[in-house]
Protein 1
Amino acid sequence: MESKPKFTPDPNLKLMDQVRQVLRYHHYAITTERTYCKWILRFIHHFGSRRHPSDMGNAEIETFLSHLASANQVSAATQRQALNAIIFLYKQVLDIEINDKIAPLKAKRRPRLPVMMSTAVIRAVLKQMHGQHLLMAELLYGSGLRLMECVRLRVNSIDMDRRLIYVRFGKGGKDRGVPLPDTLSEKLKAQLDAVRRIHAADLDDLDLYTCVASLHTKNSSKVACLVKQTGVYLQNNSTPQSVGGSPYPFSSGGRFFPGSRCCSEGPDSPCGGWRT
């Protein structure tokens, strides 16, 4: 079996744009993209921003990582994160092999006690929250969702009948189901009604529904252009989904917690092109 050729970024792009291009090609999470870019920039700035990474090597990497451990007193996990970002830059973007014998000054592992909030404290915190943020916090605590799993929750991922929430592409790209607390049923239904109202307002403001209905016709390119001009994008040029018997196009991305504005950067943006 032939091995898949290695992806090569556009050489006409700036270095950091090449880094982002490779990260997105390999489907890295947006949080990983931001973290890697941050460490790569810190690595370059550490040497005065006068030298291109291709002109540096193991010695400079060791110097930078040792500086993090000695001067900045970073944790071992943070130092390892910086190393992973720099190795990614050299191996995946610049296509330069780095010697595995990198031996910087190691950051010390310091034992830390976990911070655990009592039930009384959690209740006190929840009492200070209101509206959508309160519902999100209750889902985090009651269902065991991670933060971004809650933020990216989709309408069709909530199964009221089985009392389950389906997490798609969670940590490690895995799917799983988590319990839906009975005490949140009414609040979830109210949030769904609010999302429907947002969707209806989007259709009224942008007259988008006719665009969606004809998206797979021979005029799809014109439709896509029209949608782009309005600043609202559809996931994978999809047709509307049906939620509760009502058509639910992706004007708000099918998100259960849609943002207050529409993304203007398009479907290739980190937010996916829908409400943020």
Protein 2
Amino acid sequence: MYFLYMFLSVLSIVILLLPGFFLKKTKTLSENAAKDLSAVLLFVGTPALAVYCMMGVDIQSVAPLNILICVLLAIAIHFIPYAFMKLFLLKADDKSAAVAATFGSMFSNCGFMGIPMATLAIAYCEKLALITEAATKEALFYVTIFNIVFNIITWTFGLGMYSRGEKLGYIMKKAFLSPVIIATLLSIPFFIAGFSLLNPIVIGQVEISQIGSIIMYLYNICVPISMIVLGIRLSDVTIGELVCNKYVYICGAAKLVITPLITIGIMWIIMQFMELSPALMIALTVMSAAPPAANGLAFAETYNGDTKTAGASVLLCTIISILTLPLFLLLVSAMI
């Protein structure tokens, strides 16, 4: 039953690409719709997601060693597929396609899909039935840590991948002036202090809840907009472009198979020497096995990369993850 619940949960998110697909097919949307929506996603939705992640957890409730393991594995989860892709694409004939595929393999949909999937994976795990609420809060803490690592690497290393030839100083300046990094940095003091803007702020007799509402409104656009953009791109992609692009399959192998297998293997080795938190194991499994980030397509749209390979990688991997993500969650649940 656990596999079925996870299968249906992933499927319900993937179905959200249908509006974008049909609106583009019926020419209701303009040719620039995907690029414009991608800009909204990168510069509005993603910063709101960063703030939401930072505001929703209690740092005092988690063991420091688990935090360290989470940070180290988060870094590894990004660079394991990078090493794999460099090995297989060392002599790539299409550098632009190789960049798009490598980006897709490195950066998972850890926010838009990761947050709801981690929550559902805990909720449906029978072994955690007695501690569901506490385990969910702990898992969301690890998802937050992962998203911090994700944002830093995406907007430095990832941005650099699309800025070949640019000076390092220019790339770093562009990265640290990006809305998502600014949002993350501004949220860190609240994160450390355990103060959440998502909760009502009481000043005298007045209770102010609108700040939290604004953050939630903006965060909630992320999943539907990201899937609508995917749907738009799906309408522009032929079956041949989707299934006959070798770069897409290499990306899928790295992202959906190699990375989660190595991640679970590392956790199994660690478990031979110490006890690992079930919430940490589930959170990292979701992060490692989630399909490529929707902002991979947004980056390609915004920075004039190979949108066909980026879109095909996200689309095909997202569809395949309907099966692979539940399978890896089923595997890790047996280890708990």
Protein 3
Amino acid sequence: MKDVKIRLFQEICLILQVNKTTVTMKLSLRSLANYASVFLLFLFIQSCAVKKGMLIANKQLFTNLYATDQRAKEEAGKVADQFKIKDEDSNLDDEIERLFIEGAKTVQKNIAERDSIVKVNMTDEKALKQLLKDELSGKSNIIAGLRAKVIDDSLTMLLIQEGIRNSYTYKIPNEIMFSMGGYRISDKNIPKIQEFFTPVIDSIVTSANKYVNKRLKIKIVFLGYSDADPINPKSQLYSEIAQSIYHNTYDSTLLAKPEQLNLELSRLRAEDVGGLVRDIVFDKINYITGVKSIAVNINKEGRGEELPDNKIKYNVIDARRRMVKFYWKILPD
């Protein structure tokens, strides 16, 4: 009996600890933790008899579990439709869409699998009484397992909904624009890059720390751009771009296409900024605690002569187009 009491006391501590991370949920898990604590404290009585008060408290606990699941199920059912109405400026790319929709489907599947046991213990006093006897005797640990799964799925939906809402794409400040034909950040501008990115990475760390016991992947995407200024075939820049294209594609015919040269130039810009930011990211990654695992993917893509912002009127040769944008997402892994 002593071992059972110790285990149950540890469970209440876990419930209250995890509850702190979910206060932003529209349907908070705070009440779930409160009822769980009432239940677990009752278990410290010396008798193994199931008291009426214990039945009432645990019926409410299962009611809260059910309500939390229904809220998560409702949110999960909306995810696919939310991707159908994303606008052209959205940073919800194909991988993000796939992972969020898969995550929502997994939540729906998990809820369906435990729905019957949650409902029967919410509505059938005899079944609940037998379950509590098994918990008291140490034969069962079902309640703790259900609680953990409900919280985990609620956190998954919180992650997905925040990921969909957070559609902000950052632009490198104007004073760090690339010169005509340039694709490297100058030494004098490196401190400005660090100053700009450090608070952004801090916000990623803060966000990731909300998802206790989750397996996460941080995705950061850098998008490089170029204006339509043609690259002189006799220039040093042309030689560098040509060498980079051939190294990556082994297709020398691309060198005759000005737009392909600018596409590679824009990719190299994304590579340079992404490389600088990578060091900041991995300096900060150790501040993410409490998650089961964390992976970081940094993608660098060239967008060539594509306009960085469709709402702005650019010139063919325009310094404002020689830039890098980026966005980030926290994804279920």
